[in-house]
Predict the structure.
Amino acid sequence: MNIDFPFQQPSLYGYKLNELKSILSPAFRAKQIYHWLYHRYENDAMRMDNISKTMQNYIREHFALSQIYPIRVEHSIDGSKKYLFETYDGHCFESVLIQMRDKKLGHKGEVVESEKWTMCLSSQIGCKVGCAFCFTAKGGFVRNLHASEIVEQVVIMKKDNQMAPHKRVNIVYMGMGEPLDNIENVTRAIEILSESEGLSISARRQTISTSGIAPKIKQLGKLNLGVQLAISLHAVDDKLRSQLIPMNKAYNISDILTEVRAFPIDTRKKVMFEYLMIKGVNDDLKSAKKLLQLLNGIKAKVNLILFNPHEGSTFKRPEMNDVKAFADFLIKRGLLCTIRESRGIDISAACGQLREKVKAENVSCETLT
Ligand code: SAH
Ligand code: SF4
């Protein structure tokens, strides 16, 4: 077990059920504690009232529980909520809860409203990759999030929104950070979140988005967790991609696609290719044509993302007509393509923006608590 906590005792949110069983005796205690953590959202051992006082004290002495604290929540008119968390060592990062409403036909032909919840989680505080268009990149890299800090983002958002423990949510690792640069903690979090005695969010409902660290895609594939893969492609030639994503100089488009082809994918699923559209940079039909060629033979779907402008950036949001023409081109040729709705556009939507906004207000993380 490799749980590294430089400043604190390990958090209970960082353990798989079997690991907890081997640490606590008798083993059934682990199940009870899992129940408190993930079904009752209890984060104080002294309130876990079906376990002995001795065990409560043991937990208090040897483990931490909460390590992250929501210090600001912004509500969007579309139902999304953006959370700014502060860590136990005084850093800030963000997560987003996205609500999508849909209308479907029921068994009797009646219109039934359905809702879908997605949680967009951070995997690091800052990021080392340094993409030219990304707000997170501007703040540099601080540290990896522990698995427990990743798991706790979900627990806190579920509790705050009074969601039943097994209410279906999708997880996307598309907040701050490059998840494959923190692969051990992210994959541990995926496994903890999927524990059936816990939140039971199967790996199939969790998507790792990566800027394309080819050897780590291979490593992830070998683990065969059943997790979904999203590749932030954003450009169809290496020259432009290296300008947008400097890491492309180390692992280019061909290296990435080689690993994607070898990645174990559920027969009913596809690899998502994210394509960030920037006005006058990569939003033309020539790029769409090249994209189609590149993805030939891969079980792929494309998600077009509209560049989200932020202060200091010279890039511009593309025209909707160009985005639609790009999407139509792909769809007409049989490639599944969607346009990402910018959820929470009114609430500092692009990752890293809420953190910067709070900094700009000259309020330190500490003073907001
Ligand atoms: N590091 C990972 C996951 C976090 S970023 C990755 O790069 O895939 C999640 C997504 O947000 C990526 O597709 C990224 O390219 C995109 N993104 C970053 N900055 C953006 C911006 N200003 N506007 C729109 N999307 C952005
Ligand atoms: Fe890091 Fe992703 Fe932002 Fe690039 S887009 S800097 S990989 S968080």
Q: What stands out?
A: The chain has a mean pLDDT of 90. Residues 147-160 form the longest helix (14 residues).
